[in-house]
Request: fold
Amino acid sequence: MSRPIHVLGIGGTFMGGLAQLAAAAGVKVSGADQNLYPPMDGQLRQAGIPFHEGYRPDDLPADALIVVGNVMRRGLPVVEAMLDRGLSYVSGPQWLAENILQGRWVLAVAGTHGKTTTASMLAFVLDAAGLEPGFLIGGVPRDFGVSARLGGGSFFVIEADEYDCAFFDKRAKFVHYRPRTLVLNNLEYDHADIYPDLASIERQFHHLLRTVPGQGQVLVNAESPSLARVLDQGCWTPVVRFGVGGTADLGAHLLNPEGSRFEVRSDDRLVGEVRWSLTGEHNVANALAALGAARHAGVPLAQGIAALSGFSGVRRRQELRGEAGGIRVIDDFAHHPTAIGVTLAGLRAAMPASGRLLVALEPRSNTMRMGVHAETLGGSLEHADRVFLFLQEDLGWSPQAIRERLGSRLHLSSAIGELTEALVLAARPGDWVVIMSNGAFGGIHESLLTRLRETWDGDI
Reply:
């Protein structure tokens, strides 16, 4: 593993995490990307990894193995130069599997929603048990401060997504990982730029299922009909089903509406109670998945429950960015109507009855921009008192269905500055403003807080 690598697309959470793992393993690493922004640019600098802004053929090192991210396409000058020069190249997931995951007990977390949070919880519980896990997560767990760590033990937690590997490897990333412990959190239609329908994604999940050994374990959300269909295609590994309520093998009972207190039950036997700062029934389900996976790695449920009470959450997952004039500004990574809906439901249950829930939404993911969820997005925003929708130039659909659903609660804007000012005018003390995007959203979080402080606190 001593050969240098050069990472194309190093600013992504996966590829940037891969670069950090390689550097920690003693590999000489360099890379390139367009428009790097926090937190990955800071993590790369902290790890001492040099990178170029922009993709230039002259920056390709002749002696390095080129690790190609899935943002790269044929026709890009850097890709054509790599091929014309006969340089060695590989996809990120393949390099990771062969150089980092080989020989380790891999715990993979897959699903449409909750992968980052569940993987973070799992790594936290394993770490609290003294197992020193490595991890590669598509976000930054607050308790670790980084998205990737090589670890000192045999366990490795990875967020396993179904997006494709590279322009030359169109398989789902997660088929490379070969987990011993597999979490299947949920499954809905997403990644419309890759998959034509839900059935095609289910087939990819079954390909993942085929790689889990018979001595491993699969933890499955008992409430997902899509995952039931995946299992029906064939399963050769013991299955543990988890779910909130019902008769799952591993279940939970909410002790308050917001989900900040809940009981954990195993085979209908009370094991313990979690009290934490997170909210929402979806996070309770994430916790069950993490506890079950950690148990398979040797951490008793009671020990995992005690650890979870200290879990601090993940950056950009219901993260409080600041407060001004009694108005909270919360950042949340949003890419799918279901995730948006359950997040807002959890926040609504947790906030004071006198406050209002204001939502600023950037439909940024490929699937959202294509309009696949245009008809259902309005329903996911029902818990909001006001919705401020940012309309990018390349948005491929009309917001008419959302307007029909929300009526006067909807504000449309094609400029982030104008949207920010509309939020400032609308917000009042006691309100919670939730910024929802899977990107930087033009830095609206800090600019909004600045304007709110000027308006309500008198700070100039």
Summary: The first helix runs from residue 13 to 24. The chain is about 35% helix and 25% strand. The CA atoms of residues 105 and 155 lie 5 Å apart.
